[in-house]
Write a structure and sequence with these properties.
With about 500 residues, the chain is an alpha+beta fold. It contains 18 helices and 19 strands. Strand 8 and strand 9 form a beta hairpin. It is globular.
């Protein structure tokens, strides 16, 4: 899942300066500062962390990823079986209700899966085209038949965007109204969404695990400026904040009122390259760019040692990660030679930078200096974070740093988005390699783990050779909370387990 920077307005900026009196002052309400506001609560219409990390506690999924981020566990489906031919999945739906008190049934689950597969607005349809039919055999039995066996299918059922929504509610309210104030299947329900400012959640008394939930509510508050957000936590105006700048970690650790949470993640930061722009379409030019960037210097200078150098689009520790994948050395002289041979000696790049993002701005300055040693001019274009995502989608950039965190345990999802299909221009890069695309599709069908691993090793090698983007570094999630907050935790896929968070 990528980063997103939409919908940051004046209201959010003011919120960062004076949070004011709010519902959050009530006992048991957790306030969390984040950079950006949500964009939607319709699960199928977003691919953004800022949305999924909030609605993962508003909706529930059929199958969950556990706290360790390494295995699947029951969610709304209390059990499941798979036929010997790998084509039929039978899931037993537990006794549960939606936030409006209506029963949550297998029919709702089937409706949700067919909607993410078929709706024209779905960003995730490709991952669910493998479904032939999904139907309720009875109110508590969901039967899914696949067109062909699919190795990652169970993992895709745990994707937050495949959350179970109310069929009756969606059909009666319509998609737009439902996305504004959805009927919840998870631990919390949306009480109010003040666009550009905050999302206010209240405990869902009809949640099937309501007894597990300790908080009365949660407020996700938009505070775009990193340093302001940290000051708000230090001043006690926020209970917690996410995206702690690397430069502030050691200082915040010394504050007796705070706890810095460093959790294992699947985050990978990378430099996006727009292959559709001139010389960037040449593999040799992209390889030269890779040689011209000193990743160790970025890790040491920008992440203060919190990160590790990335050598693959599959993050370290994830399924099928290839530890021996190529890592090009820092060699600006060789980069300059390669650029000359490719007819791109005077390469000038438009480098899109998120203004106000401390890490992004520092990285941009350092990379600009490194590229200059290879004869490459990088013009830094600082834009409001609310503009950056739209510019990337429009292809209005040459290079720009972004990040991705995995959403499912299986590598298929990220591989498909980044390398294996065309509907999103292979994740904003316009990367095209038909052999890679074919192998992505074959790997999805291969059920032998050893053969499948070999395919993903090949995919990692091919992506590195083509330089679909430039892998920079892997890093943990770094969040901060007040000492009276317990169990404020993200698993490696980014999900916050707010069901277990306590405010003393």
């Amino acid at each position: 899942m990528t980063n997103n920077w939409k919908s940051i307005g004046l209201a959010a900026l003011l919120a960062g300066l004076t949070l004011g009196v709010s519902y959050a002052e009530a006992a048991g309400v957790l306030t969390i500062g984040r950079r950006e506001d949500s964009t939607t609560f319709d699960p199928i219409k977003t691919a953004q962390n800022i949305d999924n990390w909030v609605f993962s506690n508003v909706y529930d999924v059929l199958i969950r990823v556990d706290k360790t981020g390494t295995k699947l566990e029951p969610g709304l489906a209390e059990s499941w079986t798979v036929s010997d031919d790998g084509l039929t999945y039978t899931l037993k739906i537990r006794e549960a209700k939606f936030s409006d008190g209506s029963p949550l049934t297998a029919e709702d689950a089937a409706f949700s899966l067919l909607r993410i597969r078929d709706d024209a607005a779905s960003l995730w349809s490709d991952s669910y085209k493998v479904i032939d039919t999904a139907a309720a055999t009875d109110p508590h039995t969901l039967t899914i038949k696949l067109k062909n066996p699919s190795a990652p299918f169970l993992s895709t059922l745990a994707l937050p965007n495949a959350s179970v929504i109310s069929k009756k509610g969606m059909e009666s309210l319509g998609a737009d109204a439902y996305a504004e104030k959805p009927i919840a299947s998870g631990a919390f329900v949306i009480d109010e969404w003040r666009r550009g400012d905050r999302v206010i959640l209240k405990k869902n008394p009809n949640f099937w695990e309501a007894d597990r939930v300790k908080l009365d509510g949660v407020e996700w508050i938009s505070v775009p400026d990193d340093n302001t957000r940290m000051l708000n936590v230090q001043a006690g105006e926020l209970d917690a904040a996410i995206f702690v700048p690397f430069s502030r970690v050691e200082e915040l650790k010394t504050d007796p009122n705070l706890h810095v949470d460093i959790d294992a993640s699947t985050r990978e930061d990378h430099l996006l390259i727009n292959h559709a722009h001139g010389a960037l379409g040449k593999k040799e030019v992209r390889q030269a760019l890779d040689l011209a960037i000193d990743k160790k210097a970025i890790v040491d200078t920008i992440t203060f040692g919190q990160g590790t150098i990335a050598n693959s689009y599959i993050p370290k520790g994830a399924l099928y990660y290839y530890a021996d994948n190529l890592q090009r050395p820092y060699d600006p002289a060789k980069a300059k030679e390669m650029l000359a041979a490719a007819g791109a000696s005077d390469l000038t790049l438009n480098y899109l930078v998120r203004a106000g993002d401390e890490v992004d701005e520092q990285t941009a300055v350092l990379v600009q200096q490194q590229l200059q040693k290879a004869g490459i001019t990088a013009n830094l274009q600082k834009v409001d974070p609310s503009q950056q995502w739209d510019m990337l989608v429009a292809g209005d950039y040459d290079v720009s740093v972004n990040y991705w965190t995995n959403d499912i345990l299986d590598p298929d999802q990220k591989t498909t988005f980044v390398l294996g299909h065309d509907s999103n221009n292979n994740y904003l890069t316009n990367y095209k390699n038909e052999a890679v695309k074919d192998l992505v599709a074959k790997a999805r069908l291969e059920l032998d783990p050893k053969k499948r691993e070999a395919m993903y090793v090949d995919l990692q090698k091919m992506a590195k050779d083509d330089v679909n983007w430039i892998d920079l570094y892997y890093s943990p999630y770094i969040n901060v909370s007040r000492k009276n907050i317990e169990n404020f935790y993200q698993n490696p896929l980014g999900r916050f387990f707010l069901e277990d968070t306590v405010k003393n």
